[in-house]
Design goal:
Two copies of one chain form a homodimer. Chain A has two domains: 28-113, Leucine Dehydrogenase, chain A, domain 1 (Rossmann fold, 3-Layer(aba) Sandwich); 139-272, Rossmann fold, CATH 3.40.50. Chain A is built from ten helices and eleven strands. The first copy, chain A, has helices spanning 6-26, 43-59, 74-86, 105-111, 123-131, 139-150, 170-178, 198-202, 254-258, 271-292; strands at 2-3, 33-39, 62-68, 92-95, 159-163, 187-191, 207-210, 228-231, 235-238, 246-249, 263-264. In chain A, the strands form three sheets. Chain A has a six-stranded parallel beta sheet with strand order 1-11-8-7-5-6. A three-stranded parallel beta sheet of chain A has the order 3-2-4, sandwiched between helices. Chain A is globular. The N and C termini of chain A lie far apart (46 Å).
Chain lengths: 293, 293
């Protein structure tokens, strides 16, 4: 079994990006710029946005966090989005979800100009992904594809089972693994809560991608000998042995499954760091596309 | 075995639409309007556009075909698209493909305003379909979903195998059959030219959708007893017994498979008429959405 060390690979990719940005600057060009819009003071959202800002700093991107009050109206937020759409100095921006309940998340996401939507949540970008056109792919699926690519894992003709059909992971993952590309060209099985005999289906997978959000759901009996296992889940479970009282686990029972598979992502340190890095890669792409115009 | 008679159902739906349009007109409202843009004089394209015009007339829609010369520039065509985008009297329009080789099909399709793109080919509509948002679904997959729905075929939890991953049939079909809806909620297997053991996979399907474009490819040995079989293909094969010298067949070996399955679409008279009718349904939806604004 080989560990798909997302943390190490993400570090390598961030180094590559930092070098690239250094060269841009040495040629007298401005660095890429990512803006995060944070509405209200949701704890996890502040943590995520803080991490994104730190990542930008690490690779030499300009970044900015717009902290907006929980009380602002949807119209005011739309106005902010419009300003960011028009600001030529901003290559990409994200509006951190969830938004306060008096706002319509979807309306806000659709107001973001597709060529600055580095989260890849705008329907136009989702459609471009489905059609194999150049757009932005959501960070988690993009990170997983990069992980497979850099490890030169052969996917063509393999049976890939995706557990979960969320808009930001399961559904795009199935599209990407099935398209005519490398990584890609898998025969893809998209499973979900209504799937019958999920265990039997998973046990046939050459590549198993677990994105259902249930701690240690995938046991040893669901994994074929020699399969590639990608674990997207991340949950806290109690662990009295730890000082913190908890530990992080994925959707896969790592200890049991690791014995059986050829490759596996650890949690933490697998998909998570690749996701963070994919946002930087999307921002860099947005930068180049804006330069071309 | 029960025949999924698309021709008969399409007739029923067109009657429903005609009645609805009659009521609109009796209330003093204008009928829906579909415009088809035809560039050049490609034979099959003229036939398709002619059929669409005829369908519109049958249900009481206004319709118009803009015949443009093969020699016009891409800029001129984009100008026509822009005029149709702005014309409040046009609910939906299509640009018949293929376009002459000096034009970029994708650029033209993306210029069509998404709320008038009744073909459902614009990335924004493809993305909305993937995300389960209201948009326009391409006519063939939309027609198949309608066919399953009107025959009250239970799809939830069924294994649906889709052969083919084209942008206009296979890929959207897989998305629609897998989403949380009825019809929908299938466990979907998306297969294609790189799939290994295609026969074995198809033989497990509760619902088999053949959209690969190879005459009579799906034989009896690829179909499970009692499966629902949807045949999207339509090819001419030589048939000296016919006066015309040819006959139309699908991707399924109908005579052999019909013995074994629970439901099957004939070719012709199955998916084809439903596809034509789906375009009318999309146009009617476009009309109502424009009225709401």
């Amino acid at each position: 079994m080989q560990l798909l060390n997302g943390k190490a690979l993400a570090g390598t990719i961030r180094n590559e990006i930092r070098e690239e940005v250094g060269q841009l600057i040495s040629k007298g060009q401005r660095p890429p710029k990512l803006v995060a819009v944070l509405v209200g003071s949701d704890g996890p959202s502040q943590t995520y946005v803080g991490a994104k800002e730190k990542d930008c700093t690490e690779v030499g991107f300009d970044s900015e966090v717009l902290h907006l009050s929980e009380d602002i109206s949807e119209a005011e937020l739309l106005n902010t989005v419009e300003q960011l759409n028009e600001d030529a100095g901003v290559d990409g921006f994200i509006v951190q979800l969830p938004l306060p309940s008096h706002m319509n998340d979807q309306r806000i996401l659709e107001a973001i100009r597709a060529d600055k939507d580095v989260d890849g949540f705008h329907p136009e970008n989702v459609g471009k992904m489905a059609l194999g056109l150049q757009g932005f792919v959501p960070a988690t699926p993009a990170g997983i594809v990069e992980l497979l690519k850099r490890h030169q894992i052969d996917t063509e003709g393999k049976l890939c089972v995706v557990i979960g059909r969320s808009s930001i992971v399961g559904m795009p993952m199935a599209l990407l693994m099935g398209k005519n590309a490398q990584p890609g060209n898998c025969t893809v099985v998209q499973t979900h809560s209504r799937t019958k005999d999920l265990k039997g289906i998973c046990a046939q997978a050459d590549i198993l991608i677990a994105a259902l959000g249930r701690p240690r759901f995938v046991g040893e009996e669901m994994v074929k000998e020699g399969a590639v296992v990608i674990d997207v889940g991340i949950s806290r479970i109690e662990d009295p042995a730890r000082k913190s009282g908890f530990r992080l686990v994925g959707d896969v029972d790592f200890e049991a499954v690791a014995q059986k598979c050829s490759y596996i992502t650890p949690v933490p340190g697998g998909v998570g760091p690749m996701t963070r890095t994919a946002l930087l890669q999307n921002t860099l792409q947005a930068y180049y596309r804006h330069q071309e115009k």
